[in-house]
Amino acid sequence: MILAIDVGNSNVVIGVIEGERILRVFRMVTDLLKTEDEYAAGMKSILDFNGLDARGFDGAAISSVVPPLTNVFREAVRKLTGMPAFVVGSGIKTGLNILIDNPAELAADMVCSAVAAIAKYAAPAFIIDLGTATKITVIDKNGSYIGGAICPGVSLSADALARGASLLPKVMIEAPKKAICGVTTDAMKSGIVFGAAAMIDGMLLRFEEELGSKATVVATGGLAPAIVPHCRAEIVCDPNLILDGLRILFEKNKK
Predict the structure, then answer these.
(1) Of the residues 109, 129, 238, 244, which is catalytic?
(2) Rounded Cα–Cα distance for residues 221 and 213 (Å)
(3) For residue 237, what are the β-bridge partners?
(4) Distance, CA of 246 to CA of 59 (rounded, Å)
(5) Is 109 one of the catalytic residues?
(6) What is residue 255's predicted lDDT score, i.e. its pLDDT?
(7) Coil/strand/helix, residue 26
(8) Which residues pair with residue 191 across a beta bridge?
(9) Could you say which of 24, 51, 192, 196 would form a disulfide bridge with 16 (CB–CB 3.0 to 4.6 Å)?
(10) Pick from 124, 43, 35: nearest CA to 77
(11) What is the pLDDT of residue 251?
(12) Entry pTM
């Protein structure tokens, strides 16, 4: 059984994985001010509350896109489990052919999602990660990572709209009953949710044109359930894609 931790800009996603099965998934708010002791204590509380022994894991794997917290979580996991964690980064075995200009720029979460998508779905594939940023990446027919696009995230855009326009309030990210709305809050929800869905549909069409073929489309990330149902494209929603990638990479690099 392994402990898989995906440290994102907004949330930390913690997965308990046995074999190829993700048994449990927990979330914590990302906080740059917390120490390794505080994160270790928080994770222990979550595991204890769910009847899981922190010392009962065979290994741990970390993916982080928050550099100041990478070593914090490395140390927190050591204190929590009593063993060193495997951290996704340069020099590890991925089995992924990365064809972008500077492969070292590829973030750990994108490596994880690409590795998992190749293992679980048919290539070519488009991977949509709806988190703090909305990332759409491409695996070609040969299983190579060739690039993609990074867009402002749905929550980020909604927060900026409320902050930048004095008369507009902060709203929940949920779809209204229709696209044309007569109430301001519903009109904002329409623009945020249907607008994000339409952007994704449009980007997928452009990607297909440039790739020259259709592709399997997989979506992951915390906001995928709120946005993907409103897309016109056929999209598989896989909320645990990054955790699956962490598991695969942990196994590839296990000594």
Answers:
(1) 109
(2) 25
(3) 219
(4) 11
(5) yes
(6) 66
(7) strand
(8) none
(9) 24
(10) 43
(11) 95
(12) 0.91
